[in-house]
Design brief:
Elements (H helix, E strand, L loop, with lengths): L3 E6 L4 H11 L3 E6 L3 H4 L2 H6 L7 E3 L5 E3 L1 H11 L14 H23 L1 H4 L4 H25 L12 H9 L6 H7 L1 H11 L5 H8 L2
Parallel strand pairs: 1-2
Antiparallel strand pairs: 1-3, 3-4
Helix pairs in contact: 1-4, 1-8, 5-7, 8-10, 9-10
The protein binds glutathione.
């Protein structure tokens, strides 16, 4: 009986899905692709996800899911007891919904456009440099805004949620941990706390295996 299979890349957003499946106790086969051209353009991935992005999840019925937040919603449906989403009557449920969306629809795309600016600007290198800078700056403003809504010890105060999982890899990405430490210290602390969860030790170790 086939299970779930994830196309992933080490250190990428696929870590969020790996972590969520682990915490929910749902078995997951992971295939890591490299970040080079022939990595995310690998035929196996191209066939199932023409967007050529990770995470890409192949479900037991053979159907595909992309979009990390949608995958987490599916997992929350499958395993409500995993508590990745706060209960509907949780006092910070609305903040959870807002920031899950903000991270996915505003912050994540700054990487889509800023990571490979030449793709969007037809190779114009100087415009590409500007796009990289402006998307990096915009991301900093968005993180400062998120910081102003962040709780302690988790984003939703005492309630651990899927948002905390996003903060683990995302605090490693630009502008990086040193920036978060001084400019968004609550988010930085959450990233470190998730990284130190004993239940996620294997996920963490897999990201640095060669
Ligand atoms: N909306 C997607 C974004 C996924 C995404 O941008 N993944 C990055 C890796 S962290 C990627 O595959 N980038 C390559 C590309 O966009 O070409 C999600 O939430 O899953």
């Amino acid at each position: 009986m086939p299970g779930y299979k994830l196309f992933a890349a080490k250190g990428g957003g696929s870590m969020i899905v790996e972590a969520a499946f682990t915490l929910a106790g749902v078995p997951l086969e992971v295939e890591y692709l490299s970040w080079t051209t022939l990595g995310l353009e690998h035929d196996d991935l191209k066939v199932v996800n023409p967007l050529m992005q990770v995470p890409t999840l192949v479900c037991p019925d053979g159907r595909i899911m992309t979009e990390s937040a949608a995958i987490l919603m599916h997992l929350a449906d499958l395993k409500p007891e995993s508590r990745l989403f706060p209960a509907p009557d949780h006092p910070r449920r609305r903040d959870f919904l807002r920031f899950l969306m903000l991270i996915n629809t505003a912050i994540y795309p700054t990487f889509t456009f800023g990571d490979a600016p030449q793709k969007w600007l037809k190779g114009d290198e100087s415009a590409g440099k500007v796009l990289r800078e402006t998307t990096d700056d915009h991301r900093k403003s968005l993180w400062r805004y998120a910081e102003s809504w962040a709780g302690e010890p988790w984003f939703l105060d005492d309630t651990f949620s899927a948002i905390d999982l996003y903060l683990w890899p995302m605090t490693w990405w630009r502008p990086g941990r040193d920036w978060f430490r001084t400019e968004a210290p609550k988010i930085h602390a959450i990233g470190l706390k998730v990284e130190a969860l004993p239940a996620l030790k294997a996920v963490k170790e897999r990201q640095s295996e060669t």
